[in-house]
Amino acid sequence: MHAYFNRCPHALRPLNFMPDRFLSPDAGLVQCAAHSALFEKDTGLCIAGPCVDESLRRIAVRVVGEDICLDEDLDLARLERWPR
Fold first, then answer.
1. What is the pLDDT of residue 70?
2. Contact call for residues 61 and 69 (beta carbons, < 8 A)
3. pLDDT recorded at residue 37
4. Distance CA 23, CA 36 (A)
5. Staple partner for 44: which of 34, 55, 63, 81, CB 3.0–4.6 Å?
6. Are 56 and 4 in contact (CB under 8 A)?
7. How far apart, in whole angstroms, are the C-alpha atoms of residue 82 and residue 67?
8. pLDDT for 83 beyond 70
9. pLDDT tens digit string along 48-82?
């Protein structure tokens, strides 16, 4: 199971910095609210917008009871600078 780091690879802005704009209108794709880049949910691959062929940063998670937990130790400071 995985989640994605909430940053667009184009400008490293949060994908959902505008309310109700985290998914495409049909909810089939993840959408960056800043420049309308579209990402496949399963792969994180950008298929439209300024970062075509780049991908969202995948993070391993696991479900424990009703909680979603990171499945790895993350260096958050390094993650914030990614991909630079």
1. 87
2. yes
3. 95
4. 10
5. 55
6. yes
7. 26
8. no
9. 999 999 999 988 899 999 999 988 777 777 766 66
**Whether the predicted pLDDT of 43 surpasses 60:** yes
Residue 40's alpha-carbon distances to 55, 60, 69, 72, 81, in angstroms, are: 9, 17, 22, 23, 23
Range of the domain at 70: 2-81
Residue 55: closest CA among 2, 27, 1:
2
Total number of domains in the chain: 1
Residue where the block lists tokens 């109700």: 20
25 sits in which H/E element: none
The CATH number for 44's domain is 2.102.10.10
